[in-house]
Amino acid sequence: MAKREADREDLFAEGVNLPQRGRLTGPNSQQWIIGWRCEDAMSLFVEQDPVFHFNTRGELRRAYVEGRKLAAEDGRLCELVRSDDTSSKLSLFRQILDPSQTNQVQVAIKQSLAEIRDHWFGEDIGLEVIGLSADDFRDKFFKWLAAHPGPYPIAKSPAVG
Predict the structure, then answer these.
(1) Strand order across the beta sheet in which 68-73 lies
(2) For residue 10, is it within any domain?
(3) Is residue 155 part of a domain?
(4) Is the pTM of this model over 0.90?
(5) Domain count within the chain
(6) Alpha carbon distance 109, 152 (integer Å)
(7) Residue-level pLDDT at 9
(8) In a 10 Å sphere around its CB, with 0-12 CB exposed, 13-18 middle and 19+ buried, how is residue 36 labelled?
């Protein structure tokens, strides 16, 4: 994640880590970027926040929700919190989320995916793609949703594989 919101790149245009990706634009100009690092490791960006990264098994490995940077560790979500260290070196420590906080992340994932489905089938939606055709993108996304209906297990680590 970027240190500041303004540092965020244009993920659709420059998202080289997502060789297959699409930008969906809803009727109110809301944007979602959906992409794959490899065949099944999907990432979902809802505007700038929230962001969800899954591994190849559909497990949540990283997230950025309400300004909080989260990572999987041994099947639990941890918040990566900046230390109050005044040195110039950036340091982070991990704070394990409690079950209620983890559930809130699950709810955010389900809401984000439901919002995309609702717009896709209910209203006009713009779609731009890189790395695959629009039809293949749609098929791949809905195939991923069918294979991973949620709740989304938390990965053992934040790694892709």
Answers:
(1) 92-96, 76-82, 68-73, 60-65, 51-54, 42-46, 31-36, 20-25, 126-130
(2) yes
(3) no
(4) no
(5) 1
(6) 8
(7) 58
(8) buried
